[in-house]
Design brief:
The protein is an alpha/beta fold. The protein is 42% helix and 20% strand. The protein has ten helices and twelve strands. The strands form three sheets. Strands 6-11-10-9-8-7 form a six-stranded parallel sheet. A four-stranded antiparallel sheet has the order 3-5-1-12, with helices on one face. Helix 9 (224-234) links the parallel strand 9 and strand 10. Helix 1 packs across helix 3. The radius of gyration is 23 Å and the shape is elongated. 39% of the residues are buried.
Length: 287
């Protein structure tokens, strides 16, 4: 989770990069109409039902621009929010409120959209043993935020990056020559504490992965009937994961296959944003 320490260690540079993208030199529009410091306030309003996520990032955008900025929240990450709900009030230099608005909302809308979409998919898996996983199909430089949003939405994180675990996909197997050889090389190279996952596309590859001693077998782009047969073949000798164009619309097709996990790139690459807005900006005269 994005606690204050991990925020500054891992997220600050990414937030600063986003700010630099939006303000390469100066905010010409704001500087043209507001010459000097003016204390002001603005409200964060929800314009759509969903799950809110990214409030610490939203706040950090303004704090990076001016540490004196104050944010009062009326919700927390993971809360279900409603259209028209007041989520926060931001108080500070009006120039900061105007210059940080778009970047802060971009983070918050994107993360809230992912959390909302994830929560909807998790609900579809209720009553089954299958757990929902994300993938590495994330927006460049947004992975820390997008995977956090999946967790807030009730999903689970797959490996964070290529250094985080062994996953032998079709091209790794092709390079090694066979599933058996790829697994053997991975076992010889990777530390024994690392689990080895193998992607398979048919029952023959599945059988070879089991015999090679894979810890996790990913059933890629198989039909529900093929997945059922694969789970039966594996017989508990490895954990099972299914993947391949899994979305909110079709996930019900795999809920009775018996797989342990289902991974969905759609959680991070296809979730629509949650509509949010900063409204009612005004000076706080004499305060």
């Amino acid at each position: 989770m994005l606690n204050p320490v991990s925020m500054k260690i891992n997220a600050d540079e990414l937030i600063k990069s986003a700010l630099k993208e939006d303000i390469s030199d100066e905010d010409v529009s704001t500087n043209a109409v507001i010459k000097d410091y003016v204390l002001g306030s603005v409200q964060l309003i929800c314009k759509q039902d969903g799950v809110i996520c990214g409030l610490p990032v939203f706040e950090r955008v303004f704090k990076i621009l001016d540490e004196r900025t104050e944010v009062k929240f009326f919700a927390k990450d993971g809360d279900k929010v409603k259209k028209g709900q007041l989520l926060a009030e931001v108080k500070g230099d009006i120039r900061v409120l105007l210059s940080g608005e778009r970047t802060a909302l971009n983070f918050l809308q994107r993360m809230s959209g992912i959390a909302t979409y994830t929560a909807e998919v998790v609900k579809l898996l209720q009553g089954t043993k299958t757990k929902l996983l994300d993938t590495r199909k994330t927006t460049p430089n947004m992975r820390i935020f997008e995977k956090y949003a999946v967790k807030v939405g009730g999903g689970n994180n797959h490996r964070y990056n290529l250094s985080d675990g062994v996953l032998l996909k079709d091209n790794h197997i092709g390079a090694a020559g066979s599933v058996k050889e790829a697994v053997a090389r991975a076992k010889a190279y990777a530390p024994f504490v690392r689990k080895i996952e193998v992607e398979v596309e048919n029952l023959d590859m599945c059988r070879e992965a089991v015999e090679a001693g894979a810890d996790i077998i990913m059933l890629d782009n198989m039909t529900p009937a093929e997945m059922k047969e694969a789970v039966k073949l594996i017989g508990g000798r490895a954990l099972t994961e299914c993947s391949g164009n899994v979305t909110r619309e079709n996930i019900k097709n795999i809920t009775d296959t018996g797989v342990d996990f289902v991974s969905s790139g759609a959680l991070t690459h296809s979730a629509p944003i949650l509509d949010l807005s900063l409204k009612n900006l005004h000076p706080l005269e004499g305060k």
